[in-house]
Amino acid sequence: MTASPYAALLRQQAYIDGRWLDGAETFTVTNPATGACIAQVPDLGAADTQAAIAAAEAALPAWRALPAKQRSAVLRRWYDLILANADGLAALMTAEQGKPLAEAKGEVAYGASFVEWFAEEAKRVYGDTIPAPSGDKRLLTIKQPIGVVAAITPWNFPVAMITRKVAPALAAGCTVVLKPSDETPLCALALTALAEQAGLPAGVLNVITSRQAAAVGQVLTDSPVVRKLTFTGSTGVGKRLMAQCAGTVKKLSLELGGNAPFIVFDDADLDLAIQGILLAKFRNAGQTCICANRLLVQEGILPEFARRLADAMAAFNVADGASGNSQIGPLINAAAVSKVQSLVDDALAAGAQCQFRHPQLPEAGHFSAPTLLTGVTPQMRIAKEEIFGPVASILAFKDEAEAIALANDTQSGLAAYLYTRDLGRLFRVAEALEYGMVGINDSAISNEVGPFGGVKESGLGREGSKYGIDEFLEVKYLCLGGL
Question: What pTM does this model have?
Fold first, then answer.
């Protein structure tokens, strides 16, 4: 029997204080494309979470005292090991999350880039000298690690959402308690095994696998030892965590839901716009927080745009992500499929038209048909809620002012996209959009050097870039007198 390509990376234990641990109870991790069991991992609870916090607290003094160059060296070794095991990590990701193998390989490289970036940023945590108001004083600022960090990560990017949080925390000198999604804990455990191999000391990174999300979250938010919470997930859960953190006044980074508009003006390069929407809408089967949720297309070009998009969608291969030519994999679970279908049914009942629906789906697994809807209006649920599936919905607009009004008609403010050849319009619209990130004639906006984050109810803080490490640091002001 041939061993799986990820066998060497597969771990079925949690990781606390440098030890791999079993639990009294376990839960099953399944493949969303086939329903097959991949692994059984511990279902840890409140007591185990307290133990992980205690381990992180005990490890903190030595880790934060370590010179930045030495922390950087550990992170660099971790980066090298991630790249050396990229094929196995990608295969594991496809098995537990479902995305096509080519996308999974891209995510591994993307996730590794944050480890490399913050390995370098660890050595660039600079303070300031400030001109004093009198000659007998000297004023300085220094930056210090905030302390123990709790990180709660989602299932849709099970490698990159971890490295984007954990790498800057470790680079800053913090220790971490990580709670990955119960849908995709295996990538987290594999990354942790590689971090251990890279020389990360015991207690610096601890991983809680659990289906008891509320109980684990309550311990993390209540603990006075945990000084920072970083979370990626739904807006509703983010709001609850924010409220729970109020009692201990924790620092927060929240990357929450999106409702991204994808605006196509009549002067746009349509070939470029179609290429952009195929990536922004259908990557990971539409299960991304910066996914194009609403396609706002100027009236004059709407029929041509819809025809071209439908033709492109017809060429999709919807299949198990592990097959060599899959372009659209499964959704994460049956509930996700039901939600997407309910949004489509609601839109059709309210007057939208189905321009295209992919005719071929695998018989097994949690697959959703790539679908194109026209005649969508702002009042429909599909224009208000995050779809998180391979459904493109087109809304028409008359002019620039209406496009901006439609785009901003949401409490979300994560990412937006616009396509135009008019330089003046480009700046006017980009500046008017109430979003933390705007892709202009480009939908591949996420990388390690750019600040990732939103405004309004899409969250707080920024990840990646030179700003990302500041989320895990406190500024201390030193006033020297009597000089």
Answer: 0.97
